[in-house]
């Protein structure tokens, strides 16, 4: 019997499990935004970092009073426009900010689909990088080439490990969430393989 794919496994998680998994994936995406922000002097990465910290707080303390609408208003002006930047880094930055906004909307609406989408956005970021690299080497970046690329294989593997971890973490507490955050970043790199300072 085939093992269900990662997205199927995510859909089978409960609401809180989907939320913590999405937040862990955001931890791997957010440094892409920070690097872009530092390189271009666009945006304020501390606004996004603060929003993600508050997302974790809400997951651990569901009764905490956090105004997510206000956070959305703060994050939105920090989303770069593709047309304003002639560099690949704008794409992972947009994906990180878009995924973060999706997470905030998901928490407001209690919409689990938003949390599932974050794993898809993360993989799409990796796919864009592979396509960019292959095209610059004059290699045709078809679906198979992208899927079999070591970076994509690694992204799928890390996602699988995080799902395993979330499935087995038991009660979601500040301790278990802290351990998950460490696990998400234990390889010291973002979802597209950039070393995290």
UniProtKB/TrEMBL annotation:
For this protein, the record's Pfam families field holds:
DUF416 (PF04222)
- Protein name, entry field: Putative orphan protein
Q: Which organism is it from?
A: Pseudoalteromonas tunicata D2
């Amino acid at each position: 019997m085939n093992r269900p794919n990662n997205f199927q496994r995510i859909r089978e998680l409960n609401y809180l499990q989907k939320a913590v998994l999405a937040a862990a994936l955001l931890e791997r995406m957010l440094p892409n935004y920070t690097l872009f922000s530092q390189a271009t002097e666009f945006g304020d990465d501390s606004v996004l970092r603060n929003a993600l910290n508050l997302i974790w707080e809400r997951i651990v303390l569901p009764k905490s009073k956090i105004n997510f609408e206000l956070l959305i208003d703060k994050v939105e002006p920090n989303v770069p426009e593709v047309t304003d930047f002639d560099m690949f880094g704008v794409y992972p930055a947009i994906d990180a900010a878009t995924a973060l906004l999706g997470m905030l909307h998901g928490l407001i609406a209690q919409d689990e689909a938003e949390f599932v989408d974050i794993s898809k956005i993360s993989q799409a970021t990796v796919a864009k990088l592979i396509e960019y690299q292959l095209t610059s080497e004059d290699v045709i970046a078809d679906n198979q080439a992208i899927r079999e690329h070591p970076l994509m294989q690694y992204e799928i593997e890390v996602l699988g490990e995080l799902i395993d971890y979330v499935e087995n973490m038991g009660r979601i507490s500040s301790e278990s969430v802290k351990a998950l955050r460490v696990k998400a970043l234990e390889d010291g790199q973002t979802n597209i393989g950039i070393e995290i300072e």
